[in-house]
Specification:
The complex is a heterodimer. By secondary structure, chain A is an all-alpha fold. Chain A is built from 13 helices and 3 strands, in the order H-E-H-H-H-H-H-H-H-H-E-H-H-H-E-H. Chain A has one domain (about 20-25, about 80-285): Fumarate Reductase Cytochrome B subunit (Up-down Bundle). Chain A has helices at about 1-15, 25-50, 55-65, 65-100, 115-130, 140-165, 170, 180-210, 220, 225-230, 235-240, 245-250, 255-285; strands spanning about 20, 225, 250. Chain A has a 3-stranded antiparallel beta sheet. In chain A, helix 2 (about 25-50) packs across helix 3 (about 55-65). Chain B is mainly α. The termini of chain B are far apart. The relative contact order of chain B is 0.04. The chains are: A mainly alpha, B mainly alpha. Chains A and B meet through helix 1, helix 2, helix 3, helix 4 and helix 5 of A and helix 19 and helix 22 of B.
């Protein structure tokens, strides 16, 4: 059977002669990979503490080697994620402020929200109710920008409150100790929001919605074909085509191993994420 | 030696004038030394002379106890031996005890075979310290018996406790056995104000061994309240249980202490539960502060008392046990902050409400957005089926 599938896929790829366009650079894909892996580690170890009165919490703690192991793993992931955050911040500032790349802070490839995003949100909502056409989304749609800024803000808030608690006696030398109460509250609530948002809304918007189901591999492969691009980002496609810039974005079709790697990683993360989503929602409803 | 010699002579059938001046016991043994001797009901009436001689009653003659015998042959049926003739004080105690009111066991139920009673200090005695739990357990460890008499079946709980472990596994004579707390002859109901196990007497009963802890307890608010006549003030057994007392170092027991204190201090337990301390201890790990780490275990005092471990002036020292380098600013952290109390914790209260709004707002908006998008996309896909091969 594997031979049959192999032949079938090759035939499909040759016969359709899809053109592939770069969406994410290798750096962006690595960044997402690091954020994904460390977020998963932080979410698992953090939610165990957030819902420590649930049965699954103490079971998980026992399996991984106790509270010391949980805290170590949580801090380990936190340090890597913080480093990735700083590298990204440095990269953005370098591109925007030193290289004077105006596209960093403004324009279609920028993460900065603009008026079109508001219009797209309005248009999208109208489309949900059959009141208008599907908006022509650009390189980053409004919900993708929201995902980005949610993570950006989340990392700032959760990270800062986390480091306050990690180095609590040190922070108390400059800040009042009562901030520690607020730090734990915000750390836990913002983390719960992040976990639920990523494992429910980000998963759906990006991977599980009809059109992407069961998984959008673009974050792993870095490229998408012309049909996908026309369907999902017709605004960007038309702009690039009109300006004769499509050619510059052209790339090779993703290799089989890369797609399989993406499928394996993505499926594993989605399954773990759903399990954690289900456990945390159930515990939250039970008031644990 | 005279007794032994006389008995030997008799056994050899050479009685003669040797009986003159000898006790009546010598005569009795001419029959009762026979191992096969039984009464009409078939019960053995054999007396092991050697064991009797070695017993605490070895110097007594048979008729000292069996006082209704004056002649031979004696009646087939004798009246019961009255231990109280000599042991009047103990008999009086037993008469006043629960045992008299309940099943009324005889002295022998605990002191064993009548002719072989050895001193309590003798390891063969059933009431020797190390043997006491098993002796009491013959009745109190019997589930059916306990049920019949409305008794809590505490035997197994005791045996698994730190006291039972020390006594049975380590053979520690100073470990508490049943009689250490309940007394031996005058065992009273725990509802009787005279009882050693009556609520308000318990700190003194436990304190007869745990003198240091007793002093700490009475210096603390619980002991002070008890002394002031508050019968609801917690005593030793309220936190440690009466029989299943665990080692204080036991991790599983330590992890349960917040729930134990919280059975009275409900609000404090609820606010503690919001803290990182509680999250870790709820997972079953004790590297973090539980009630006693801050409030002490026995000398617990309200924060208003300058001697309290949580008095404002002592907080830095108390928190520094774990948080090395804690300063006055650090201890303004509130381990019992209440996110629902706007007056006492306004910043925390409004932070919590803001986070509620943020979570509720973001998740409702995007949740609805997602549901609507899903419905619309399914319809869109159905109509737009042929064109896109999204995952190729």
């Amino acid at each position: 059977m594997p031979d049959l599938i192999l032949e079938h896929e090759e035939i499909v790829e040759q016969s359709t002669t899809r053109t592939y366009y770069t969406r994410f650079s290798l750096g962006q894909r690595y960044l997402h990979g690091v954020v994904m892996a460390t977020f998963l580690g932080l979410a698992l170890t953090g939610m165990v503490l957030r819902f420590s009165r649930s049965g699954w919490g103490s079971s998980f703690a026992g399996v991984v080697g106790g509270f010391g192991a949980i805290l170590f793993f949580h801090k380990f992931c936190a340090v890597i994620l913080s480093a990735a955050f700083l590298v990204h911040l440095g990269d953005v500032l370098h591109r925007g402020l030193i290289q004077r790349d105006k596209g960093t802070f403004w324009g279609p490839n920028s993460m900065v929200p603009n008026l079109k995003d508001l219009k797209d949100l309005y248009g999208h909502l109208r489309w949900f109710f059959w009141r208008g056409p599907q908006p022509k989304f650009e390189h980053f749609a409004y919900w993708e920008k929201f995902d980005y800024w949610a993570v950006f803000w989340g990392m700032g808030i959760i990270g800062f409150s986390g480091y306050i608690m990690w180095f609590s006696t040190l922070f108390a030398k400059v800040l009042p100790g009562s901030w520690l109460n607020i730090a734990l509250l915000i750390h836990g609530e913002e983390a719960l929001l992040a976990v639920w948002f990523i494992f429910a809304i980000h998963f759906f918007n990006t991977h599980l919605r009809p059109g992407s189901f069961p998984m959008d591999l673009v974050i792993f492969t870095g490229s998408e074909n012309d049909a996908e691009m026309k369907e999902k980002r017709s605004g960007e496609y038309q702009r690039l085509a009109g300006a004769d810039q499509l050619e510059a974005r052209k790339t090779f079709a993703p290799t089989r191993w890369l797609k399989n790697f993406g499928r394996t990683m993505g499926a594993a993360v989605i399954v773990i994420g759903f399990v954690l989503l289900w456990l945390t929602v159930a515990s939250f409803v039970k008031g644990q | 030696m005279l007794h032994v010699a006389a008995a030997l002579l008799l056994a050899l059938g050479t009685a003669g004038g040797a009986a003159a001046g000898a006790s009546k016991g010598v005569d009795c043994l001419s029959c009762h030394a026979d191992q096969s001797l039984t009464d009409q009901a078939g019960h053995s009436v054999y007396v092991d002379q050697a064991k009797h001689k070695a017993s605490v009653h070895g110097s007594l003659s048979c008729t000292d106890c069996h006082s209704d015998i004056s002649d031979y042959p004696h009646p087939e049926k004798l009246s019961q031996v009255a231990c109280e003739t000599c042991h009047s004080s103990e008999a009086g105690d037993v008469d006043a005890s629960m045992h008299k009111k309940a099943a009324s066991p005889s002295c022998l139920a605990c002191h064993n075979s009548p002719h072989e009673i050895v001193p309590v200090s003798d390891p063969r005695s059933p009431v020797y310290q190390l043997n006491v739990p098993r002796t009491c357990g013959t009745c109190h460890g019997n589930q059916d018996f306990a049920k019949q008499h409305g008794l809590a079946n505490v035997y197994q709980g005791y045996m698994d406790s730190i006291h039972g472990f020390a006594l049975n596994k380590s053979g520690l004579l100073v470990a508490a056995s049943c009689v250490s707390c309940h007394g031996s002859h005058k065992i009273l109901s725990h509802k009787d104000p005279q009882s050693r196990t009556y609520r308000t007497n318990i700190p003194n009963t436990c304190g007869s061994c745990h003198a240091g802890t007793k002093a700490e307890y009475f210096a603390g608010i619980h002991g002070r309240k008890l002394n002031a006549g508050d019968t609801k003030a917690p005593v030793c057994i309220d936190c440690h249980t009466a029989h299943q007392i665990s080692r204080a170092e036991n991790v599983a027991w330590q992890a349960k202490t917040p729930a134990t204190c919280g059975s009275c201090h409900k609000k404090q337990l609820s606010t503690y539960s919001d803290s990182f301390h509680a999250q870790v201890s709820a997972l079953g790990y004790v590297e973090v502060a539980r009630c006693g780490n801050c409030h002490r275990n026995h000398e617990i005092l309200p924060a208003s008392d300058p001697k309290s471990s949580v008095a404002p002036a002592n907080l830095v020292a108390t928190c520094s046990h774990c948080h090395a380098g804690a300063n006055a600013s650090f201890v303004s952290y509130r381990p019992h902050a209440d996110t629902r109390d706007m007056k006492s914790f306004p910043a925390l209260y409004f932070s919590a409400r803001f986070m509620n709004l943020l979570l509720g707002g973001v998740l409702s908006f995007f949740g609805l957005h997602t549901i609507l998008w899903f419905i619309r996309s399914v319809v869109h896909q159905a109509g737009n089926h042929a064109s896109v091969d999204t995952n190729a």
